[in-house]
Amino acid sequence: MDTLLHLKRVIEEEASAIQALLGQINQSYEDAFNLISTCQGKVVVSGVGKSGHVGKKIAASLASTGTPAFFVHSTEGVHGDLGMITKSDVVILISNSGETKEVLNLIPSLNKIGSKCIAITSKPDSTLAQACDVALTYQYDHEADLLGLAPTTSSTITLVIGDALAIALSTSKNFSKEDFHLSHPGGSLGQQLSKPKKS
Q1: Best CA proximity match to 19, nearest among 141, 168, 147
Q2: Which overall architecture, per CATH, does domain 11-193 show?
Q3: Is 24 exposed, middle or buried, given 0-12, 13-18 or 19+ CB atoms closer than 10 A?
Q4: Tally of CB atoms within 10 A around 25
Q5: For residue 2, how many C-alpha atoms fall within 13 Å in the half-sphere facing its CB?
Q6: I want to staple 55 with a disulfide (CB 3.0 to 4.6 A). Which of 3, 47, 122, 192 is the partner?
Q7: If we measure between CA atoms, which residue out of 119, 112, 106 comes closest to residue 78?
Q8: CA distance 193 to 197
């Protein structure tokens, strides 16, 4: 087995899928941006499995770049954590198939709460996409693993969509280094930002 060839193949396939995403950005992405930018509450991100792990990173990226956000695991949501969500919040629901039961189970309660919902899914005709106010959809040929099963290409695309939203929102708010330092005083980044400016 040529390990380097396998490593390069995965990187090439995922990079190609991200490049193809550029041609899939449409009005829905601007609609999602507008929903979040006018949100009077917080952004809540939810998912399970790999989508949940990616969702945690998206929520963290939003929060650290000026958009208050937090993650709620979809399963925990229907066991009490929906109490964290209000009608002023925007909820991002992540499911590659758009048919993940745990994610769909949140929708009836979110509708009653009155939160606006954004789907991130590869299936525009899925139950999730149809149930949300805005659906951010993407297409890709296959997952990068040899079985075509493990979330790899799809989870990378979802992460990129989250990064794009976070940075677009941050830019629109003129988010500064000082703002970033306020929520990120620790670590090497915090130390770098604590250094006095050179005159």
Answers
A1: 141
A2: 3-Layer(aba) Sandwich (3.40)
A3: middle
A4: 13
A5: 5
A6: 47
A7: 106
A8: 9
Q: Name the token pair of 110.
A: 């979110």
Strand order in the sheet with 134-137: 69-73, 43-47, 90-94, 116-121, 134-137
Element (H, E) at 69: strand 69-73
pLDDT of residue 185: 79
Structure tokens at 47: 């998912």
Q: Exposed e or buried b for every residue in 106-142, given b needs 16+ CB within 10 A?
A: bbeebeebebbbbbbbbbeebbbbebbebbbbbebee
Segments in 38-124 forming alpha helices (H) = 49-64, 74-77, 101-104, 107-113
pLDDT at 68 over 70: yes
Rounded CA separation 69/62 (Å): 6
Q: Give the integer Cα–Cα distance in Å for 30 and 182.
A: 28
pLDDT at residue 89 in the model: 98
Residue type, 23: G
> Which pTM was predicted?
0.91
Q: Please state, rounded to an integer, the average pLDDT across all residues of the chain.
A: 93
Determine whether 162 is exposed, middle or buried from the number of CB atoms within 10 Å of its CB (0-12, 13-18, 19+).
buried
Please give the single-letter amino acid code of residue 34: N
- Spatial contact of 165 and 120, defined as CB atoms under 8 Å apart: no
